[in-house]
Amino acid sequence: REPDPEALLAGLNPQQRDAVVHTGSPLLVVAGAGSGKTRVLTHRIAYLLAGGVHPGQVMAITFTNKAAAEMKERVAELVGRRAGAMWVSTFHSMCVRVLRREAKVLGLSSNFSIYDADDSRRLITMVAREQDLDSKRYPARTLAVHISNLKNELLTPEEAAERAGDDMERKVAQVYAAYQRRLVESNSMDFDDLIMRTVELLQNHPAVAEHYRRRFRHVLVDEYQDTNHAQYVLVRELVGTEATESGVEPAELCVVGDADQSIYAFRGATIRNIEEFERDYPAARTILLEQNYRSTQTILSAANAVIRRNPNRRDKRLWSDAGDGDPIVGYVADNEHDEAAFVAGEIDRLVDSGEATFNDVAVFYRTNNQSRVFEEVFIRLGLPYRVVGGVRFYERREVRDALAYLRVLDNPDDTVSLRRILNVPKRGIGDRAEAVVAVHAEQERISFAQALRDAAEGRVSLLNTRARNAISGFVALLDELHEVAAKSDVAETLEQVLERTGYRAELEASDDPQDATRVENLTELVTVAREFTEARAGAPATRGEGDPSAEAVVGAAVPAAEDDEETALGLPADDSLSAFLERVSLVADADSLPESGDGVVTLMTLHTAKGLEFPVVFCTGWEDGVFPHMRALGEPAELAEERRLAYVGITRARQRLYLSRALTRSAWGQPMTNPASRFLTEIPEELMDWRRVEPERSAPQVRSTWGSRGGLDRTGSDSAQAGVAARGMRSTGAKGWKDTVALKLSAGDKVTHDKYGLGTVLSTEGEGPRATATIDFGSAGTVRLMLIGSVPMTKL
Ligand code: ATP
Ligand code: MG
């Protein structure tokens, strides 16, 4: 099927069309939400293919695997089965694919394990313990964040050591070096390594880089505002900036993004990559899109009113011809249960009246834990729903245990997984025995797996007979399972693991109802494995390397025989265990989005909602301290990021938008009184239809100190002096507020507050400028106070 190039352009506006047909220089499409950036990418690919580009020459990068699958599907609708040979994936999946192919060059074995955040933290904990670091002063979590940041900046342990300026940085560099060595010994990579090692590969092996450059003549990146430095360099290495020695010209690059939707700064994303695109690629062309096709004008106006207040941004003129539509519905609930009941009631009403289906509706919140109340209410009312993300299936203990067995079978050097299952289920290999084996491994410079074998054969002196026997039994069990794995598919191997290790039997014998759920989850995992095997059996077999030969590709028509569809992961067909493990390692929150047709309401965090759209959107929990997140109050950079998140949330809505907040909400087991989110107060009143406002109160209002204004008093602006000071920023000259005075409190302390009177500190959270205390002021209520700024309170 050859699509007509003109037909592909028919549904596009002139700017979109320019972007689709542009050739000859790097292209940046910058535009606000819903202006068709993703659509441009899809149409551009289809247009290229219609013009004779071979699908094998196209690489597109999306933010989630789900988005990748959708894009592939949409292109397939436009050009047919040929779409199969394109590489459409996330950065991480793309890198795994390259690294597995090129493992030899890097001296790796191609069945390396992929460590997620939890695995990587475990390994860091082990390393930090070996280095006798105080886990209070140097928590594994903090070390992990620092190491990840270094990798996102493509800094090696040696470079990190050279740059280290303070004690923490020196310790981080030291742990990073040992951690990296352990990863290599375990034949494993963490998520950041996937990117960093691919960059290294391309930079240090020009022949390999040239091979990919020849192959991928078109590279397209969606959501470019959320790329970090490592990803930026990766893209640059892939496409190249000048011709190679043998004359391969740079590939064509097209990136699309919106600086106002950059919401992953905490993972190192930087809008610099968008802002400096023209400097990075001097010949670049930039195209702006201004028409929004997603939302009503009312929704857009609200989004603009909020994002406008961010400093240092380029203002965009985004317009819609969808008409004003309905006003935004506002609701002030008494508490979070009342809020959930309102949301559920509205959904019910919309569905009953035929105005919407369950599928049309999404409910957003700031943090995952906020989903619980919605779930309770939805279950009680029988509303079908699905939570995206949250405590993810693959993060559950039993699922991780089972996968650890599979990983050890796939990659015996995977130390983190091996140590995870060493005594799970309990088999008499205690912490001491584990430590003895670990020391032996260090001393002999052998893998933990090898050290276990030594122990089983009596070559480790410090072990008693019981421990030695237990280890022998475990080694024999693994050998047995290895044989099973060699002749079974993944599902069968998993069944045998659960059976022969006694893992399932132990759960089944337990009285704990949670263990019954665990058994169900394991059954579900077996089902996932079975479906995986079936899907692979249905897919055409991989044909060797799969790359069309370079000569055939460059500028020439490619013979039909080269038009192969590879298995999604670029692995040989018999390597199903690796492929399965890779699939489950790279699942992201958004990948579990319900299929349309499921007839369910979708619940998710604002972060997960990026790139999506729904006819009806409920943005909930718009309270200062909840959203914007407490962490961001008084931190201008973080507040700007929260504001972009608000912009993302609002612009997901096509026709109807609801914004709600609760006057009180439980946090840390205590009801907290929260003021209206500043974002809520920034939306012009004429766009809103308040269904319920804050009730008048006769008693003095109990408020957090940073929220000195009432919920519906929308005269206060973000920059009002008192407001700023109250939010804990340094403020000179604002009346009534002095410079930062930190008040040191701990649970149990008695205090007296100018306004609330006597109180008892229930708990404290955070440190420095983020320190807060939850204080019970008796009849005046329980209040969460920021302990910065001049708090009108004295410790007794
Ligand atoms: P986001 O910034 O949220 O990622 P986006 O810029 O990628 O948004 P798309 O998701 O591509 O925007 O498009 C938003 C909606 O507008 C989609 O439903 C898309 O099909 C529709 N759309 C885009 N361009 C056009 C057009 N020219 N004609 C009709 N509909 C369009
Ligand atoms: Mg998009």
From TrEMBL:
Residues 297-611 form the UvrD-like helicase C-terminal domain. Its EC number is 5.6.2.4. One of its GO terms (cellular component) is cytosol. The keyword Ligase does not apply. InterPro entries: DExx_box_DNA_helicase_dom_sf, DNA_helicase_UvrD-like_C, DNA_helicase_UvrD/REP, P-loop_NTPase, UvrD-like_ATP-bd. It comes from the Bacteria. GO terms for biological process: recombinational repair; response to radiation. Keywords: ATP-binding, DNA-binding, Helicase, Hydrolase, Isomerase, Nucleotide-binding. Signal peptide: none annotated. ATP binds at A31, G32, A33, G34, S35, G36, K37, T38. Residues 10-296 form the UvrD-like helicase ATP-binding domain. Residues 695-727 are annotated as: Disordered. GO terms for molecular function: 3'-5' DNA helicase activity; ATP binding; DNA binding; hydrolase activity. It catalyses: Couples ATP hydrolysis with the unwinding of duplex DNA by translocating in the 3'-5' direction; ATP + H2O = ADP + phosphate + H(+). SUPFAM superfamilies: P-loop containing nucleoside triphosphate hydrolases. Belongs to the helicase family. UvrD subfamily. This is DNA 3'-5' helicase. It comes from Saccharopolyspora hordei. The lineage of its organism: Bacteria, Bacillati, Actinomycetota, Actinomycetes, Pseudonocardiales.
